[in-house]
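Let us practice reading a record.
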Amino acid sequence: MEFITHSKPSIDKDDIKIALECMVSDYIGPGKLVSDFEDLVAKIFNRPFAVATYSGSIALFIILRVLGLRKGDSVIISAYSPHQIINALYYLGVEPVLVDINPDYSLSIEDIDKKINNKVKAIVITPLFSAPVGIEEYKKYNLPLIYNATQVLGSSYQNEPPGKGSDFIFLSFYATKVITTGGMGGIILTSSKEYYESMRKIISREPDGITYPLLITDLQASIGISQIKRLSEFIAIRSNIAKFYTENFKSIKTISLPPFYTDRTQSFFRYVIKVKDVNRVVKLSNENKVEVKRPIEKPLYFFLNKDFKEYPNSHLSYVENLSIPIYPTLTNTQAKKIIKVVSNIVSP
């Protein structure tokens, strides 16, 4: 019996063709295709400057280096965030200050007000599961705003690209993200020429001081270019699958559906429902050859040994949220099986 995985990349013959063309060329290192890929992503977000990097974690690391953060400084981040986000902070000895979330997974202003101090040098905003969040309310702190747009590529907020008004936007192009650059990859976007020039210097391969040449290659960029050209197609397919799920799950009272927002469009990187006893649903679904997961396997307060009671909304999301497969290569037959398996498990 076929096992339906939770996530998988959407690589097709066009991606393979452009990668092969790059491989047989005279140059596969960081070059023109990387620049072309940077320009394409920058255009999506209406930013003049972009720097492609080896991963999303490295992108955040470079941003923090540009801002001059060092040991003893702090950064505000969501307690309900992917754990990889703290790697970049630890590379520099920067302390994460965990803040609880609102129902739309934005940072709680009330909790920021309680925890902010003069050691905090930046705020990282991480919208989740394809629903972008606004940043205007965070500008009152007069701190650099870093927007992690990984899960909202292809979405919009108030008819604008995600992260409008932030100092930096960064994304990961890991294998299972909205698009991929062949496994690993990331990018940084900014409107500041000064920040851009600093990033280029930090990531340079030239022997001019200490640098971190953690670049992607033209080979990776070639796949990214092919994927970017299919972004609208990817989003349309994801949206249709999400509608199909919603239509079939809406009558099941033991399932809470993802929220619908009138002020933003969603790319449905994840389709996250709320159920009781997530562990049981995960176990039984896997036994029925359907891989479902907690969308955030462990909130950051687990890693930092913090009391979960300090983050009530984050912990409730951890307890209730369940992510079911949604990706462009998912077939209608597979989607029907997912609905049947999950519905049977959660029905009283």
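A brief commentary: The chain has two domains: 13-229, 231-346.
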